[in-house]
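re: that complex we talked abt at group meeting.

here r the seqs, copy pasted straight from the sheet so there may be weird spacing, ignore it
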Amino acid sequence: MKVFVAAAGKDLDSMVADRFARCPVIMGIESETGEILEAIDNPYKDGTGGVGVKVANHIIQNGYKAAIGPQTGPNATSALEEGGIELFTFQGTIRDALEAFNKRK
Amino acid sequence: MKVAVASGKGGTGKTIVSTSLFLSVNDAAYIDMDVEEPNGAIFISPEIEREERFSLPVPSFNENICTFCNACAEACVYSAISVIPQAKKVLFFEELCHSCGVCKYVCPEPGAIVEVPKEIGTIRVGNNGNFVEGTLDIGIPSAVPLISGIKRYIPDNDVVILDSPPGTSCPVVETLKDSDYVILVTEPTPFGINDLSLALDIVRELEKPHGIIVNKHNEKVSLAREFARSKDVEILLEIPFSRKVAEGYSKGIPLVDIEPEYRSNFKDLIERIRVTIS
Amino acid sequence: MKRAKELVIISGKGGTGKTTLSGSLVRLLGKNEKVICDSDVDAADMFLLFEPETEREEDFRGKSIAVINYDKCVDCGICQKVCRFDAVALEDGKYQINPYSCDGCTYCMLACPAKAISMEQQVVGKWFISNTDSGSMVHARLKPGAENSGNLVTMVKHQSHLLAEENGISLILIDGPPGIGCPVTSAISGANLAVIVTEPTFSGIHDLERVLGVTGHFQVSSAIVINKYDMNEKNSRDIERFAKEKDIPLLGKIPLSTCVMDAITRNKTPVDSCPDIKSIMEDILGKIKKLMDIQ
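got the structure back, here u go
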């Protein structure tokens, strides 16, 4: 499954970021293989308004099915929920997050 | 002529000065552009004759026509739109929208986006059109459209007093833009002078003739005079601190009713301003 | 670690003593107990009380605004027609963008048939991280007349959280902007407690009701401090009754005091030089800590 991660760094040993929309790195992972599909500096990070919606739009438009990160803000949450994106809250490394995500019910 | 009364800092006496000018000068009009906190009416007690709701256009999405192409969301610099093809839905975050019209312009499907009015505040007109105030609704992000909307209600009296919002940001610029003269009201404290200095920058950038009124003046403190000298600005009037005035103010009594001798000061002031700008 | 809690001091009306209160709280709280955040970015005054030594200074980039390339412009005037912000005017035979009015929406750029308009990002202010005797302080300065002060408020709050995380600090004390507009919305959103400083004047009460509307709208818990309460004791009682009816805690009443006025004139907080006021402030801080559930 194509999963979005709000990441603190660009590899699997980096931490899941502690802010969703303002995370340092936007990462896409194929959950079964752990293959990194994209890992880019978050262009919206220092944006000044509607940052949550921008990141949510990125997730929805790029065909992600789930998003791993901290709690999302209200606007992003409603957009992601409408988009049927599964929200998976996790603190720790991305590798651990992925393992937990794959074992989820 | 339009005389704007502004102050970098709130609570310096902007409304005291602007209502006093209005009450002292014959055939003047008073326009309260401080739409976040309009307080002039407390001192003027106007008879309101008209009350109108003010609105701005916002998009409304027809999901039966929409093809979910995402063009609107991509074009919206305010991130007010989220297009969700999976759910055949468009989410609109009204509080982020600036009513610019770009979404409708870029939409390739006629009828998918139409604009509907969204109310953002109230404009009240009274005293035969000589009193106008705007009140911004709670939770509306920008005061600028309402301030700009009020301008259509300004009568063509000989003297029009514009009570500006405090601060130095966009609503202030929107108010001062169309004025002929700006009175900056300050108080002789370090906060007051710091904020006056910011307000002065903006008035100078807008190239408006201007002068200072020092409220709560204290003979022992020369901060305002020193500042005025160093910046080469005229002090138009000094209003000494008085507990009587402060208490009257707290009850909504205008300065010129507590201390009637100020009426002639304010009248003279307007005549001096007239000479300055002619 | 947990996200730091936010205490924000606001006042519907300017000049009610918001910075006097927040400055006093800054003094009473320990140096490492809080990050000081001055979010009154239009008229930042807190720095006058604490002589900050600036450690970091960054440009704040606001919105982009439209710029016309006159080599390509064909004087058709479509930009003026489409602009909803009255930002385009015909002056000296040329269409010109007024940078104060332009909202950066890109309509003119999209509509221009000659592709003569581009968007350029503006530096609209600066933000700072500074050291003071009373702790680290994040503050900012908006260019006079610049827009987007709400966004700069969001930025200084964001930087305050980063600083709090870095130093293991669990409280952010925010001196908020006056009014009820966008900057206030940004200052209170996500706050754990908003303390509203009011005064017993007609305007003060009027503005108190409006600002409570805002905190209510954004579901932020509120509490009230009445400043200069003895200027009009009847109005003060009305405020107290009002607070009781609305079930909003009244944290304290501060008298009109020449000592406070003198202190502010010398860039001091009343905690430094007015013992009577200091004890009132300590009492207020105690109640705040209880409400916010902090030690």
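couple things i noticed - The radius of gyration of chain C is 22 Å. Residues 29 and 281 of chain C are 11 Å apart (CA to CA).
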